[in-house]
């Protein structure tokens, strides 16, 4: 699984990194460390018609974006 | 129950719009229920960083927004001390965000409030703001970043909100330390308790909803997402209705309170603010909120805005109500645009090379 590490990135970079990664892979994991990014990346994934789920990991979250 | 994002944004926008109208009725200058740029500028004057006598006051709204965000983020666990994403660049960008706002005469939030009262100069400002955000989006989608922040200690995260609260206690305890305008916009203010309460509520709601004036247009351009712009629209609608009720609504370019009708400079001033806001990852309001959440990077941007406000008045960069910016202000806006575009270009080219190398 390709992993996009967007921890420490300010808004809206995690979304842009997700967008870029989804062009190459259909399924990815995105790591974020703040709630704004968590919401933005999930919203973007859903808007792209993906199945999105998130789980806490360390001090942040792992967002699984699946077909 | 946790509200969904969209209702949260709509409620936040509506409350801020209504609170702005109420603060104006209680004594704030017209169309200035909230203005992050103007109020930071007043604070800069109050702590003797500039000596423009008509714009000096310790605005409780600003302290309230930072403290409200700080308090609610501690309660909800959103408080996340972090820093290290190009703080000096953020200071410089914050500086020019403020210069642009003071040439237009208002931050993006006041721009919406001005629209809500019928000030068409704010529409020109909005076009410039959108142009600045569009420019920023070109850099962002090509890889622009100010770099990763890393975790900091809780004491570091609490330092900036703590300092803001300390400053406010000092203002209540020993007011003679500070300067206060006896005439002009700085002399017009709502009672301290009302202004502080409005700030606290706005700070808490903005923290929970991530309300951002720049983010709405940015997301619309970058990812066709209209969630954040709902907050923007709600503020406009609430202030429009409020102003119609209070009878302050009047459409036009001329004779709008604390505004000027120099279209080019309204456009370019807000373009500078829009570009800078996108580079910082949020508008001036959002920077205050994130500083309250423990971001040292946003604190650096806020300090840059404070310094920019002082410079704007010490070097005559700020526009005058009615007559617009003088030569110094025009030169400063152009210089700011050149500097921000240069920073963004250099960073973007370097990031692209890194990305292409894999």
Could you list some keywords that capture this structure?
heterodimer; A: 67 residues; alpha+beta; Translation Initiation Factor IF3; four-stranded mixed beta sheet; 37% helix; 34% strand; B: 358 residues; mainly alpha; 14 helices
* Low confidence ranges of chain A: none
Order of helices and strands of chain A: EHEHEE
CA-to-CA gap between the ends of chain A? 13 Å
Secondary-structure content class of chain A: alpha+beta
Decide which structural class fits the backbone of chain B: mainly alpha
Provide the number of structural domains of chain A.
Answer: 1
Instruction: Report the end-to-end length of chain B measured between terminal Cα atoms.
Output: 44 Å
Report on the structure:
The complex is a heterodimer of chains A (67) and B (358). With 67 residues, chain A is an alpha+beta fold. Chain A has a single domain (2-66), classed as 2-Layer Sandwich (Translation Initiation Factor IF3). Chain A has two helices and four strands; from the N terminus they run βαβαββ. Chain A has helices spanning 13-24, 35-47; strands spanning 2-5, 28-32, 51-57, 60-66. In chain A, strands 1-2-4-3 form a four-stranded mixed beta sheet, with helices on one face. In chain A, α1 links the parallel β1 and β2 (28-32). In chain A, α1 (13-24) packs parallel to α2. The longest helix of chain A has 13 residues, at 35-47. Chain A is globular and about 25 Å long. Chain A starts with a strand and ends with a strand. Chain B has 358 residues and is an all-alpha fold. Chain B has one domain (5-353). Chain B has helices at 5-26, 36-46, 60-76, 87-104, 108-116, 121-141, 154-173, 192-209, 213-223, 229-246, 263-280, 284-292, 296-314, 327-357; strands spanning 82-83, 150-151. Chain B has a two-stranded antiparallel ribbon with strand order 1-2. In chain B, α5 packs antiparallel against α6 (121-141), α6 packs across α9 (213-223) and α6 (121-141) runs parallel beside α11. The longest helix of chain B has 31 residues, at 327-357. Chain B is globular and about 60 Å long. The chains are: A alpha+beta (67), B mainly alpha (358).
